[in-house]
Task: inverse folding
């Protein structure tokens, strides 16, 4: 312990919403110069509000009602708005969750990066340009000079987040608040972004406050952590010791949920179970016009797979690996350029309209984003009822009964009259699952069904999918970049890279002993608790980068 | 860019051909023609036949259509059956009047409505916002003729500041011309402000909630810069589309307003010509409206990428 003043000292703050309910009840937190700490909690725990109060960027109506926020001894809670503007950008940096919406779509990358420099320094136009280019090169953006004139929509999510980091780190802030900086990214991009962030923070002696719900990332990247629940700190201390010996039941629950999602699916599928879906040499080529990158790219090339009754097959890969396109192609939602797809033994691609219709009714889909996949104006009961509309040999009373039955199975009994916005993210995804299952389909395609959800909710939803599969024996194609989720539900794994299958086999074989280097990289990048590699000291981390 | 423009222009030709056919047929579906309306009850069958032959109305529709198109292609829009004037000159003279009023009103409306809407969004749910929304709703609910008459009564009759009847061209006497258009411009501007303020406010509220606005603030930027450089360009794109649509609509004729203020605009010309079944003039007016509509939409589409680069021009 040194007598030095900590960089950030948050003392007993309380934050209230417009209706005077406390979002943050009492939070204490200290952060030393150059340290990396995590603020952990589920959505609604107040972690985002607590972190935004440091920059005094609370949404309208939300205000801090008690406590002090000391930045090197200066109380920010009482600083003038003018003083705050001097500190923001210069000493206090912030990185946001959604790289898709945290850069201004109407402004070139260069103009956005230069903005803060023009505001806080007296550098010339040329010097600013030079600094921006150097910083973009540091975050490994190829053609940095060209990037300055490009607009945010021309980059992938991972690249945008790197540009974001470059733009914030340009002024070498003393403190960086990173609010779920990688939640929207796939595992590989997640790894890349956080490695870069760590590296830059170390070089510039910037302290980082990482706001996240992902305990795997916390274990891998931070030294200290603070666990928040319902606006209060439930546990705080060294990351390694909290993860190894959590004192509080809530922390234990969080860690158990994260670990449980690392457990393997154990039930065995009999080898003679009939194939529900069989794809042979499926290829999908996007024309130059739709793909936009110039050449007619093969999104999926010559992929063959079968999914048996009661089996879950996971398709994993990074963004752009073709896994989503494959899922859509198998359902006939995108045209195949070659190959054949059989559903319950019948070819559905060239088949007659009736066969295709039947196949389409027999395959149901669960989408990634439970916010946009439900009609906001439709009540839950009618959303779940909708797929039954075309079932002729079912009496209306039976349909009603089926809907309440399915809602009970997903744990949403009695919510028929609610609207989607009245439910939480986890509940909405349950509605989506109920809608997919109400017809008792032989096949369910789930495209990243849990990646938008919190860790504990993820565990519950995955559990639900497994339980329902055990009861009804539907086959499931589970598309995901999240290996922890895959481990939890899948019997078999197919690894895709650049539209091709690079490896496939039983889940434990692939995830336990990957043969292909790409698979190994994917597994390496997935943050896991209790994995010794996850707790390596910071110095080693930079080496893993390509 | 050039190929985009070429594609858009050829699509425009297709649209206008459809407009031409529709206009031609619609006009002729109305019972009665120019000849029978001009002669009235008193006309004899011989007179009717002579007039019809003179205007080509005795020909089958396809032949009439071909004559009309042939004329159009050589710049001849025909002659008004009512006054005998050439249609193109007649329409252009009347269009000037409407265009001056509409463009002036629209410019004022945009200049007032966009900043006010942005301010109201910034101050969302404050009393100032409430005041802006209430006034805007009031303005857009008032019928234009009623607001026009009200202004005429107050400024024309009671205060006698402005003339209430007539029109003088800007070329003849600028200050007198101005005194005639102030009230119609004010009426139209007030109503469009009501529409545009609400649109600008709604899209600014959407944008203000986005993270890049918080990101801009997190850089330490003063609020006015955040609003000017981050909120305004993104919030303006949807408003621009609306401006285009309104402008096209208004230029096609603000007949009601022109009637209230006794202005010789294109809207009134169109109404009068419909009553007289003056086919060449009605066809010309509607075709011109179509051209204006398509052109304004093209301009809006060309401007759109400036505010939202995600909409590529290619």
Result:
């Amino acid at each position: 312990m040194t007598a030095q003043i900590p960089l950030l000292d948050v003392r007993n703050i309380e934050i209230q919403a417009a209706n005077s309910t406390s979002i943050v009840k009492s939070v204490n937190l200290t952060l030393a110069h150059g340290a990396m700490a995590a603020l952990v909690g589920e959505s609604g725990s107040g972690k985002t509000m607590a972190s935004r109060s440091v920059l005094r960027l609370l949404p309208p109506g939300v205000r801090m009602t008690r406590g002090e926020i000391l930045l090197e001894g200066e109380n920010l809670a009482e600083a003038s708005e003018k003083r705050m503007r001097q500190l923001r950008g210069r000493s206090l940096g912030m990185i946001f969750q959604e790289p898709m919406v945290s850069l201004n779509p109407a402004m070139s990358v260069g103009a956005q990066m230069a903005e803060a420099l023009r505001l806080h320094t007296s550098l010339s136009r040329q010097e600013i340009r030079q600094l921006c280019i150097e910083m973009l090169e540091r975050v490994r953006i190829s053609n940095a000079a060209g990037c300055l004139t490009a607009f945010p929509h021309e980059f992938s999510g991972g690249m945008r987040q790197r540009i974001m980091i470059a733009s914030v780190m340009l002024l070498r802030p003393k403190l960086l608040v990173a609010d779920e900086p990688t939640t929207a990214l796939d595992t590989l991009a997640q790894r890349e972004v956080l490695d870069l962030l760590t590296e830059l923070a170390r070089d510039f002696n910037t302290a980082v406050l990482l706001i996240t719900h992902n305990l795997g990332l916390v274990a891998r990247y931070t030294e200290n952590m603070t666990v928040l629940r319902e606006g209060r700190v439930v546990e705080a201390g060294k990351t390694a010791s909290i993860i190894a010996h959590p004192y509080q039941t809530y922390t234990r629950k969080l860690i158990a949920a994260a670990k449980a999602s690392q457990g393997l699916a154990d039930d065995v599928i009999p080898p003679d179970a009939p194939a529900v879906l069989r794809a042979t040499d499926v290829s999908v080529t996007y024309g130059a016009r739709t793909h936009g990158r110039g050449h007619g790219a093969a999104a999926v090339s010559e992929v063959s797979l079968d999914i048996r009754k009661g089996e879950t097959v996971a398709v994993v890969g990074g963004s752009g690996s073709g896994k989503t396109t494959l899922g859509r192609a198998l359902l006939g939602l995108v045209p195949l350029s070659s190959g054949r797809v059989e559903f319950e033994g019948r070819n559905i691609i060239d088949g007659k309209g009736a066969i295709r219709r039947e196949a389409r009714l027999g395959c149901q889909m669960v989408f990634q984003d439970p916010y946009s996949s439900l009609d906001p104006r439709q009540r839950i009961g009618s959303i779940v009822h909708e797929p039954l509309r075309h079932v002729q040999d079912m009496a209306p009373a039976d349909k009603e009964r089926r809907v309440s039955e399915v809602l009970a199975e997903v744990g949403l009994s009695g919510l028929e009259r609610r609207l989607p916005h009245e439910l939480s993210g986890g509940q909405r995804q349950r509605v989506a699952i109920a809608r997919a299952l109400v017809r008792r389909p032989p096949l369910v395609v789930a495209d990243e069904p849990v990646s938008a959800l919190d860790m504990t909710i993820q565990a519950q939803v995955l559990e639900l999918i497994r339980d329902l599969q055990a009861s009804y024996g539907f086959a499931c194609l589970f598309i995901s970049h999240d290996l922890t989720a895959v481990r939890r539900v899948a019997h078999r794994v197919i690894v895709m890279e650049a539209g091709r299958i690079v490896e496939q086999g039983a889940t434990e074989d692939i995830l336990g002993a990957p043969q292909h280097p790409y698979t190994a990289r994917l597994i390496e990048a997935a943050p896991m608790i209790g994995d010794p590699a996850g707790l390596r000291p910071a110095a080693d981390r930079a080496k893993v980068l390509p | 860019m050039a190929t985009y423009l070429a594609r858009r222009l050829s699509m425009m030709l297709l649209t206008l051909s459809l407009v031409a056919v529709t206009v031609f047929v619609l006009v002729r579906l109305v019972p009665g023609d120019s000849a029978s309306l001009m002669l009235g009850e008193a006309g004899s069958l011989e007179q009717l036949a002579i007039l019809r032959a003179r205007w080509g109305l005795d020909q089958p529709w396809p032949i009439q259509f071909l004559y009309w198109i042939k004329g159009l292609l050589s710049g001849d829009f025909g002659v008004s059956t009512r006054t005998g004037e050439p249609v193109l000159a007649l329409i252009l003279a009347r269009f000037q009047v409407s265009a001056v009023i509409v463009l002036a009103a629209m410019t004022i409306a945009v200049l007032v409505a966009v900043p006010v809407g942005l301010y109201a969004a910034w101050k969302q749910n404050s009393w100032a916002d409430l005041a802006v929304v209430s006034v805007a709703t009031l303005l857009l609910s008032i019928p234009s003729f009623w607001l026009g008459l009200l202004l005429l009564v107050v400024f024309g009759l009671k205060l006698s500041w402005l003339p209430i009847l007539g029109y003088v061209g800007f070329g003849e006497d600028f200050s007198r011309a101005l005194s005639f258009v102030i009230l119609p411009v004010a009426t139209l501007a007030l109503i469009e402000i009501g529409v545009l303020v609400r649109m600008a406010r709604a899209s600014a509220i959407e944008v203000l909630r986005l993270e890049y606005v918080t990101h801009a603030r997190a850089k330490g930027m003063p609020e006015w810069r955040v609003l000017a450089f981050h909120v305004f360009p993104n919030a303006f794109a949807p408003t621009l589309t609306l401006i285009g649509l309104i402008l096209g609509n208004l230029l096609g004729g603000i007949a009601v307003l022109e009637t209230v203020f006794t202005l010789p605009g294109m809207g009134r010309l169109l109404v009068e010509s419909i009553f007289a079944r003056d086919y060449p003039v009605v066809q010309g007016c509607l075709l011109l409206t179509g051209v204006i509509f398509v052109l304004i939409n093209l301009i809006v589409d060309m401007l759109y990428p400036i505010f939202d680069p995600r909409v590529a021009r290619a």
Notes: The two ends of chain B are 6 Å apart (CA to CA). Chain B touches chain A at residues 124-125, 210-212, 214-222, 229-230, 233-234, 237, 307-310 (CB under 8 Å).
